[in-house]
Design brief:
Oligomer: single chain
Order of helices and strands: EHEHEHHEEHEEEEHHEEHHHH
Number of strands: 11
Shape: globular
Strand order of the largest sheet: 3-2-1-4-9-6-10
Radius of gyration: 19 Å
Length: 293
């Protein structure tokens, strides 16, 4: 079985239109889908965090890490670098999967074999399909981020970052971009196999801005290394610069209003607009890399 690394939160909640909370039922459905499709789940959590009962009840291996992001973000979430270090210390020598904890998997045998035979220098990045019922496999593709990643452990061992946090904004952009810039090539898997039971979006704009500023530093560092700039890095910077230079952004009016309230009558609106354009650039470029596989 391919090891699947996630970070199971203390509580799951999935409220339906009638008010019924299917959180526990949904969490068990996710774990069952992982195992039924050939993945062995391992959860990485802070040693200071109360563990979800499903971890012991479903006999899921847990790796405890010593530090967390509570001081910065108010929750004992795991730094992305620590999460990946924990995964790589698991005596894995081959492919491994990283995914969010609220993901259902339903993969074909042929596509599983592609992941199982993933070699150093190869990767797989996938969006999820948002579904309205747990048993449904017809949904709409989530366009703003990514939920499923497969890498070879030898490539992941090179990863370093304390700037991003699992379960917070931007990590799902930074990780695949960093790996693609390392020269990894995308495996080709055609059929959707990553599913997610829809729920109301929980935007935390303040944290989105803080972590977005970290992402901007990463872009600057990438641009400063122009002497040895790879073809991938050059193409990525071209897409980012083009998006930043747009005269109009694509922020929805409801999001604009909320951001203005958060940023003291809009004083940070320009910065937020740039971050939004960077996020658009990330998605555009990541899709380009994914579809080239």
């Amino acid at each position: 079985m391919i090891p699947l690394f996630t970070s199971i939160p203390p509580h799951f909640s999935r409220k339906q239109a009638d008010g019924q909370d299917l959180g526990n039922q949904y969490a068990r459905a996710c774990v069952k889908s992982w195992r039924n499709n050939g993945f062995d789940p391992v959860t990485v959590n802070s040693k200071n965090e109360a563990l979800a009962s499903i971890i012991s009840e479903e006999n899921i291996e847990c790796i405890a890490v010593g530090r967390d992001a509570r001081e910065k973000f108010g929750k004992p979430l795991i730094f992305l670098g620590d999460f990946i270090s924990a995964a790589c210390s698991h005596q894995v020598d081959g492919p491994l999967v990283i995914t969010n904890a609220d993901i259902l998997i339903d993969i074909s045998t042929d596509d599983y074999r592609r992941l199982e035979n993933l070699q150093p220098g190869q990767c797989f990045v996938s969006r999820r399909q948002d579904i309205k019922e747990m048993d449904s496999r017809l949904g709409s593709e989530y366009l703003q981020g990514y939920d499923f990643f497969a890498f070879h452990s030898s490539d992941l061992k090179k990863f370093r970052s304390d700037d991003f946090v699992m379960g917070m904004p931007w990590w799902d952009h930074y990780l695949p971009i960093w790996m693609y810039l390392m020269g990894l090539e995308q495996l080709s898997i055609k059929d959707p196999f990553v599913f997610h039971l829809s729920h109301a979006e929980r935007w935390d704009f303040e944290k989105w801005v803080i972590l977005g500023e970290n992402f901007m530093k990463f872009i600057q560092q990438t641009g400063n290394s122009r002497a040895g700039l790879s073809a991938q890095a050059a193409s990525y910077l071209e897409v980012v610069n083009r998006n930043i230079n747009k005269t109009e952004g694509g922020l929805k009016n409801s999001i604009k209003t909320a951001l203005k309230k958060m940023t003291k009558s809009g004083r940070l609106e320009k910065k937020i607009q740039i971050l939004h354009q960077v996020a658009d650039a990330n998605v555009e470029w990541l899709d380009r890399m994914r579809l080239a596989g």
